[in-house]
Write a structure and sequence with these properties.
alpha+beta; Helix Hairpins; five-stranded antiparallel beta sheet; 17 helices; 17 strands; about 20% strand; elongated; binds adenosine-5'-diphosphate
C-alpha cells in the first residue's frame, strides 16, 4: 500500500513527535527518578540518624526495640537496629520475642558499608517483589555502638514515574491529533495553491513532442518532480550559456561596457580595462567615475534616449577609439569601443606617402616637360643652349628613375617579395666589396676612409641585402661628410649571437629631434640640399626595412665632436650544421 502525500507528511510528523516525546520522557524520567530517590535516601538517613539520637538519650526502661517502634511509627518507615556483628537487637517489624528467636546475623551490603564508613545504602527487591531503599548509619550509643537501618518501599517513586509516562503518552497522542488537524487544513491550502502549477507543468510535459506519455496530469508530486528536473536542466543550460557568453566577452578585442539605467557599470570586459585604463573593480561604479572622458559620457547619455550612437575621439592616453553606444532592453546602455590608433596611423602614412611620391615626381617631370617645350620652341636650333636643356632633362629623368627604383624596392620588401637567402658571410669580404664600388666618391672629396673589422667575423645574412644596406649608409656618409673629412667602417660582435656594423662620418650629424624620423620614407633634414645631392629620401627607409626583415636592429647615434654613427645589428653566423635549414628571416 502506498501512502499519499498527506499520509507521508502525517507519518513524518508522528515520527518526529514520537522521537521528541520519547527522548524528552526518557530524560525527564531519569532525572525525576534520581531526584526522588535522593530525597527518599536523605529522609531515611535523617530517620536513622534521629534514631541514633534517641538511642543516645534513651530513658531507663527504653529498650532498643521500643525506640525502633517509636521512630517507625513517627516516620512511617521500617527501622532495624543491629549490633556491630549484624545481630538484630531492635526492629519495628518484629516483636521483642520474635527478635530474640531470630538468631540470624545480617550481612546486607548497607550494613557492611555503615560498619566501615559510618553510612551505607542499598536498593533490593523483597520476597514479594517490591523494591526497597535501605539506608544504614553507625551510632555510638552509650552502652554499645550499633547500626541503625531505616528503609522504605520505592513504590511512591515508581508511581510518580508511571504517572509521568502516562502524561507523556497523552501529550504525544494530543500532538498527533493537532498535527493531523493542521495537516488536513494546510494540506488542502497547499494543494489549492499548487494545483495550477501542477496542471500547467503536466500540460507542458504532455505537449512536449515524443515525451507526452510521461505527463500524468493528476499525479501532483510526479509532475512537480518533472518540473524540478526541467528547472534544473534549464538552470544548467543557462549557466553554460552564461559561461560561454563570459568567455566570448573576455576574449573580444573590443572594449565592452554594459551600463544599467543609472549609468552604473554592470559588465566590463578585460579589453575595456586595458583600453580605457579603468580602475580596479570598476563594476558598480558610475561611468564618469570609472572613465573621465566627457565624449563617452555624452554618447552613453544620447544612447540612453534610444537608438545607436557613434563617435570617434582621442582618449587621454593618446589612443584613438571608435565608440558605439546602443540602448538595451532594460533601459541600460551597451558601449563597444575599438582601438583604431594603428588604423588611423596607417591611413595617415599612406596619405602622406601618396602626397610625398606625387611631390617628388612632380619636380623632375615638370623640369623634363619644360625643357622639352623650350627645345621645341626653338632652343633645338641653338646647339649650345640645346645641350644644356638636354643635359638637365637627362639628370632629372635619371632622378626619376632612381625614385621609381627605390620605391619599387621598398614596396617589394614590405610586400615580402624581396627574396632573402641568408647564409654565413664574412663581414670583412662584404665590406671590402662595397667599398670597392663606392670608394671613388670618397677619393673625389679627399675623404680618409678607414676600416676596422674583427678578424674572422661572420654573420648570417642575405648578401644582396647586406650590400644594399652598406652602399646606402656608406654613400650617405660620403655625401654628408665635408671635403677632407674622415669616414670609418667598423664591425664587431657585442654578443656571441650578434654582429654590429657601424658607419661613422664627420658630417653635420643628426639633430636629436630628427633621429626618430630619419628612417621614415621621404624624410629629409634639409630637402633642398638632399635633392641637390641627388638624394631621394628613401635610402634609410630601405636600410631599415632590409635590416628588420633579417631580424636585426638599426639606429643612429651622435659622434663626438661632430658627425653621426649609423649602426645596425644582424645575427651572427650559424654553426655549419644549421646553415642549410630553412632561413627564418627569409621572405618569399
Ligand atoms: P637621401 O637620399 O636624401 O640621403 P636617406 O633616406 O638616405 O635619403 O636619408 C634621409 C635624410 O637623412 C637625408 O636627407 C639627410 O638629411 C639625413 N642623413 C642621412 N645620412 C646622413 C648622414 N650620414 N649625415 C647627416 N645626415 C644624414
Amino acid at each position: 500500500m502506498s501512502l499519499g502525500f498527506r499520509g507521508k507528511l502525517f507519518l513524518l510528523a508522528a515520527l518526529m513527535i514520537a522521537t521528541v516525546v520519547g527522548s524528552v520522557g526518557f530524560y525527564v524520567e531519569h532525572s525525576v527518578e534520581s531526584s526522588l530517590r535522593s530525597r527518599l535516601e536523605l529522609e531515611l538517613y535523617r530517620h536513622a540518624k534521629n534514631t541514633g539520637v534517641l538511642l543516645e538519650h534513651r530513658v531507663d526502661g527504653d529498650d532498643l526495640d521500643a525506640v525502633a517502634d517509636r521512630v517507625a511509627d513517627a516516620t512511617r518507615s521500617e527501622i532495624w537496629i543491629f549490633d556491630l556483628e549484624g545481630q538484630p537487637v531492635g526492629s519495628s517489624v518484629l516483636a521483642p520475642l520474635e527478635l530474640q528467636q531470630l538468631a540470624q546475623v545480617s550481612a546486607d551490603p548497607e550494613l557492611e558499608q555503615a560498619r566501615q564508613t559510618d553510612r551505607g545504602m542499598d536498593v533490593r527487591t523483597d520476597g514479594e517483589g517490591n523494591r526497597h531503599l535501605y539506608v544504614a548509619v553507625k551510632v555510638a550509643a552509650p552502652q554499645q555502638a550499633v547500626l541503625v537501618r531505616a528503609s522504605a518501599p520505592l513504590a511512591t517513586v515508581q508511581q510518580t514515574l508511571a504517572q509521568l509516562r502516562i502524561a507523556a503518552v497523552l501529550a504525544g497522542i494530543a500532538g498527533l491529533g493537532i498535527a493531523g488537524v493542521l495537516l488536513t487544513a494546510v494540506g488542502s491550502q497547499v494543494e489549492r495553491a499548487l494545483k495550477p502549477v501542477v496542471s500547467s507543468a503536466a500540460a507542458a510535459k504532455a505537449a512536449e513532442p515524443g515525451d507526452g506519455e510521461s505527463g500524468h496530469g493528476d499525479d501532483g508530486p510526479q509532475s512537480l518532480r518533472t518540473v524540478a528536473v526541467d528547472l534544473e536542466r534549464t538552470m544548467g543550460a543557462l549557466s553554460t550559456e552564461r559561461n560561454r557568453f563570459e568567455a566570448v566577452l573576455q576574449t573580444l578585442e573590443q572594449a565592452v561596457l554594459v551600463l544599467d539605467a543609472d549609468e552604473k557599470l554592470i559588465t566590463v570586459n578585460r579589453a575595456a580595462y586595458r583600453l580605457l585604463s579603468l580602475p580596479e573593480r570598476a563594476v558598480g561604479r558610475s561611468l564618469l567615475e570609472a572613465v573621465r572622458v566627457p565624449q563617452l559620457k555624452a554618447l552613453a547619455a544620447a544612447a540612453a534616449e534610444g537608438g545607436t550612437h557613434h563617435d570617434e575621439f582621442e582618449l587621454p592616453s593618446g589612443l584613438r577609439v571608435d565608440v558605439r553606444a546602443t540602448r538595451h532592453d532594460d533601459e541600460g546602455v551597451v558601449i563597444v569601443a575599438q582601438d583604431i590608433t594603428e588604423v588611423r596611423h596607417l591611413e595617415r602614412v599612406r596619405r602622406d606617402f601618396v602626397a610625398n611620391v606625387s611631390h617628388e615626381l612632380r619636380t623632375p617631370i615638370s623640369v623634363i616637360r619644360a625643357n622639352a617645350e623650350t627645345l621645341l620652341d626653338g632652343a633645338l636650333d641653338e646647339p649650345k643652349v640645346a645641350r644644356k636643356f638636354v643635359e638637365a632633362t637627362h639628370r632629372h629623368s635619371d632622378r626619376l628613375g632612381r625614385i621609381v627604383s627605390d620605391l619599387l624596392d621598398i614596396s617589394r620588401i614590405e610586400a615580402g617579395r624581396y627574396s632573402l637567402n641568408p647564409a654565413n658571410l664574412n663581414v670583412g669580404d662584404v665590406v671590402d666589396q662595397v667599398l670597392d664600388l663606392v670608394e671613388s666618391n670618397a677619393t673625389e672629396k679627399g675623404i680618409e676612409l678607414s676600416v676596422t673589422i674583427e678578424p674572422e667575423l661572420d654573420m648570417y645574412a642575405d648578401r644582396k641585402a647586406m650590400e644594399h644596406i652598406l652602399i646606402n649608409l656608406v654613400s650617405n656618409a660620403f655625401k654628408y661628410t665635408p671635403e677632407n673629412g674622415k669616414v670609418e667602417v667598423t664591425a664587431h660582435a657585442p654578443t656571441p649571437n650578434r654582429v654590429r656594423i657601424e658607419v661613422l662620418d664627420d658630417g653635420p650629424g643628426i639633430d636629436p629631434a630628427h633621429r626618430e624620423r630619419i628612417f621614415e620614407r621621404f624624410f629629409r633634414v634639409d630637402s633642398g640640399r638632399s635633392r641637390d645631392m641627388g638624394g631621394t629620401g628613401l635610402g634609410l627607409s630601405i636600410v631599415k626595412n632590409l635590416v628588420e626583415a633579417q631580424r636585426g636592429e638599426v639606429g643612429v647615434d651622435p659622434r663626438s665632436p661632430t658627425g653621426s654613427v649609423f649602426w645596425f645589428t644582424l645575427p651572427a653566423a650559424r654553426p655549419t650544421s644549421f646553415e642549410n635549414e630553412t632561413p627564418e628571416a627569409a621572405t618569399s
